[in-house]
């Protein structure tokens, strides 16, 4: 096969050409502005009706002519009608009107009510409403359900549409699976000939447990088919029993959940829950098929059908299923009538080269909701949340789509991925959707060049029953020439499906690109070499390396990079690898500080990083950083370390080590221990919210523990620090001992190992070694704690690790809680002066001193002000103060602190408090010009949050007050809001979980927009609350924004916005202009894409009945005074973020900055996915600056709306692009300004290219 044929084969698998394939399926998408979706299709497939995508919104009921694609509104002016089904001629639509069962007639364009009477021979209470669920295609009969005053009592109904009267259906079931008469039944569907009704009983009584023999715990839910002329019914999937548990027709079937009948009434499909007491892992849903006429129940249980439901079935009994059953984002498959299910996207791709997802802008193929009588038209919904639907027409019935052109082995993934760039190939794994085995004799897989010449033959092509074909080559043989295309060729009949050996593969060609035979090369590192860096961590400040090709890291070993300090040969810290595509990020497990006046070298050892095929291992990579971290003790906080275990973060807040690796007893397994878990969190019982740490020595067989819990490295600033913790033991008849070591060590470790534990024991000090007691009760922790304290005076000025050790032998367990390292200075100091000023020669330094210790009053204080050069400026002395804890006194130096302009001016205050000495350092930035300060509010919100109008009120108020200096970002992460898709990492990083709440300028506090007093009166600021009531509360949004906007910013930021229609890419070129000189800076840039005027369907409002003007327009009498506000356009909606972390990317601005100079930042871009409904003209970009060393916010800017900007680059036509060199064209002949990024088929230099 030559290269041209291979290209055609490849294109056929990726794209569709309607001209080339006349029998290609035809797909039509339906999207409605009111967010409704097509809910049902007529049996003949010619008509359809719509329903709301969400039960909480109101939509126009529509009748759609699927032949023309046109729809008509069949609702009244009040839009209180709902549609369920439609006849074959489109003349009758059934559903509800004003909450009652009704049908719409095309003849008069009116809705007609149906009789409110149950089809049961007796029903205990009166009915008041309901809905008609299904209609026969000839319009003679309809079925549905009737509602009552009791929401749980529902009656079934069969109507004669000629008279509108109910038809009695005798001999319906009375008792459900729990042997109870719940008076809850509905008729779901009726067959085309009017003979069969598919019905559900006790649908609200779901099984709550699958264990034990309590019948009520099983719930009552079941489905059945009623034979109207026969006046009898058959239960689906079970044989009834009047007294015993019903017998399932399929072993392990616990309940049938869902029943969807074929148009002709001969088949029913749905899902059955499988649970078997003999296997605790067996609890899942699988699809089933029920043959009505033969009373045969078939459940499809194998690996591929778990968590699947069959949603519709053809008239010849072929079910269509979709998965996962518990998600609205599903993908559907077709049954082959034998034993396998084929994904519809694979069928379309293999038969017609039709990429359903890519070409129709879907993330998933959706749920098959209906199929026409002839099986040639399928209605599907990608996701009910978004309200999209599509109808796809086939030239053959869907039941016969699977032919010899469709192979179970035609869909696969491979590693290295197809299209990868490699210099040689040692191995490749090809993973299929089915279990496969090798059937070819010998090694038949080859690596071929563009001219079909065999470069190398595999030394192994083995598939041993799993899903992966493992291929190996001799690397010295399987070399690829730089810039050339090669193919891994898996010949036909190499492998077969294990469960069906007759199913064998066709020829498979996997394309690879050749690269030079050389080590992978780092092209960029951030922070850049020589930068001043204060810390390295995984969340905000990793070290990132870009390479000249896509890369991988050998998974066989635990690979590490290292940080070395100064000339030391032992690593200062270990760094973990995080990688993807062509980038590697290095970060420790816990934050590592790089201290000022030290040089640090980051080293990636040779050979760790290779191309994706394992070739071209890197040469040693080394970058050097100047430490920028200065130790400062916060004298506003008396703790150096604090953990009460209530955050259940023991595995991340401490370094754990298990040196015994012994098996716990069953009792300890119940506490969630295993052989490798040394310490864990616990509590007395599930009702307690007070957690502690626990370690045990209860093993099988009995043995000695070697379990450690180590506090990350701490710096002990002076001799008044103290370790305190609470402890106790478990069993009173055991002698459980707890040990605590303090190890002075300057090396930073992010994990413990055997060698480091040995050093703790030999080099550290055993500062605590005592037998514990369980207290008054072995069963409770509360009230039985022993308080312990250890002085850390010996370690003043040192780095230390504090280690808790359990090395008991055959004892019980020890508990630890409230591990605190306290800084017991008698006084704490805070400053009143601003952190930044503009063009000042000197400033006053003042503040407060507060007593810190309960048992030690503060009497005599001497404060000495020292400038950055070490020169004493002034001294403040106060004697006889007599301050006790909770009291303070103000101080102010008489002489001003001289300042240098355009730099950060550092100073110290030396403290002598009753003879005890320490110091605190501060910085004042003296700016050369005044940048415009802007405040960013990052808010957690959502449409189903009834309190979120409080945030909208507060934001509207702040916009009016501060205009473009206030930059809100709405992160719609609240449950159920589709605008929050893909943003969970963002709001979790910010620590936002309650709505509405926000961080402002990345402050430590999570804040609320408003507060109410005891009289339920709302306030926008804490100041207003205190003024009106005298009560105080934490700052609200308004308070914090006002505070932050008054602070001078260190830098000005400006940005513009551009949009390239060809690639759907938004860019935001940015300029940074600093107001002061700065050296060894590590500045990061982070960006957020916003969209304005976004239709989010509705906003829930919990204040529609509240009468307070401050809440307008959401409160009573306001424009939005409804529980659900429909038609509201959301503002400031976050659509995506840019940056390797949520502090952004560093290395974009030089480390040494000159005041007043412009620094350009390029590369900020957002590619709008085809599937996202984003209007680029309504987009803006917020660009933020951070100090990457500290995470501190510097400033931000928001671009104009794209519609107000001029940077829109359209696709240019041939005439306008004649002079564009190296041009790319679409298949329709339009010429592009640059290489396209959007997926599709393009023409470039006379050849066709597929962009994936």
Determine the mean pLDDT.
87
The CATH first-level class of the domain at 935-1204 comes to Mainly Beta
Principal-axis shape equals globular
**What's the β-strand tally?**
100
**Uncertain regions spanning at least 5 consecutive residues:** 1-22, 209-216, 632-636, 1207-1221, 1225-1233, 1237-1242, 1246-1252
* CATH architectural category of the domain at 935-1204: Sandwich
What is the CATH T-level topology of the domain at 935-1204? Immunoglobulin-like
Percentage of residues in DSSP E strands: 35-45%
Provide the CATH superfamily of the domain at 935-1204: Immunoglobulins
Outline:
By secondary structure, this protein is mostly beta strands. It is globular and about 105 Å long.
Word description of this protein:
With about 1250 residues, this protein is mostly beta strands. Among the domains are: about 410-515, Sandwich (Immunoglobulin-like), CATH 2.60.40; about 520-625, Immunoglobulin-like; about 640-825, Jelly Rolls (Sandwich), CATH 2.60.120.200; about 825-925, Immunoglobulin-like (Sandwich), CATH 2.60.40; about 935-1205, Immunoglobulins (Immunoglobulin-like), CATH 2.60.40; about 1210-1250, no CATH class. The chain is built from 10 helices and 100 strands. Strands 43-46-50-49-48-52-54-44 form an 8-stranded mixed beta sheet, with no helix packed on it. Strands 55, 57, 58, 60, 63 and 65 form a 6-stranded antiparallel beta sheet that branches. Strand 79 and strand 80 form a beta hairpin. It is globular. It starts with a helix and ends with a strand.
